[in-house]
Amino acid sequence: MIKNVVLLVAALTLVGCAGTQNIAMQPDSFAANKPKTITTATREKPSFSAMTASKGAFALVGAIASISAGNDLIEQNQVEDPAVYIGDALASILEKHFALQRVDNNSAVLEDATPAAIAARYPMSDLVVDVQTLNWSFIYFPTDWDNYRVIYTAKLRLVDTRANEMVAEGFCKRIPEQDENSPSYDELVANDAQRLKDELKLAAEHCIREFQTKVLKI
Predict the structure, then answer these.
(1) Residues 159-198 pLDDT 10s
(2) pTM for this model (two decimals)
């Protein structure tokens, strides 16, 4: 039963990518109409799943409990959603590459992610970088219940609000394999969950590189 729960959670990390086409930005995307401004979208912080072996033994009930425990862990230790860091980094890359001006998004929270909805929510900017965390969680290894991996998946959309068009779109994931440095639960949550924060930072840096080279092509 526990192994099945682990496999189910791993499968769910990829659900968000099912509708995501990896569409790279074209070199001539702005040849006819160069953008002048850029901003980042703001999203509500998603739920975090902290799946331990004791919770995994109770299948669906355990999965619900892991989300409750995960959200408490994130709040108590002030763990930031990596999407914020990723979005800011990518906006800075685009800002420098196209000589754009960064504008404030007025803290407008995005709910609908269609190009038209993004354009309507952020009309103050020509380009909008929308990075959405699809899954952030930690879970024990199927053959080692004492050690854990931090899973992260994210989706990028770059929208031209002037034409309500998706300029680029992509998906990124980091699902570490087990090794001698895989942390225990205690290591993950010690010192205000510093190891968890470090693992999420590694995931964020990985996604920035993936999105920059494979989607933005910069």
Answers:
(1) 999 999 999 999 999 999 999 999 999 999 999 999 999 9
(2) 0.87
Could you report the per-residue pLDDT of 54-72, keeping only the tens digit for each?
A: 554 444 445 677 899 999 9
Task: Name which of 35, 42, 43, 17 is nearest 167 in CA terms.
Answer: 35
Q: What is the pLDDT of residues 95-115, one digit of tens each?
A: 999 999 999 998 899 988 899
Give the number of other CB atoms < 10 A from CB of residue 177.
Answer: 7
CB contact set of 179 (below 8 Å; sequence gap of 6+): none
160 has which bridge partners?
127, 165
Which uninterrupted H or E stretch holds 39? strand 37-40
Paired sense of beta strands 144-160 and 165-174, if any: antiparallel
Spatial CB neighbours of 30, under 8 Å, sequence gap ≥ 6: 98, 160
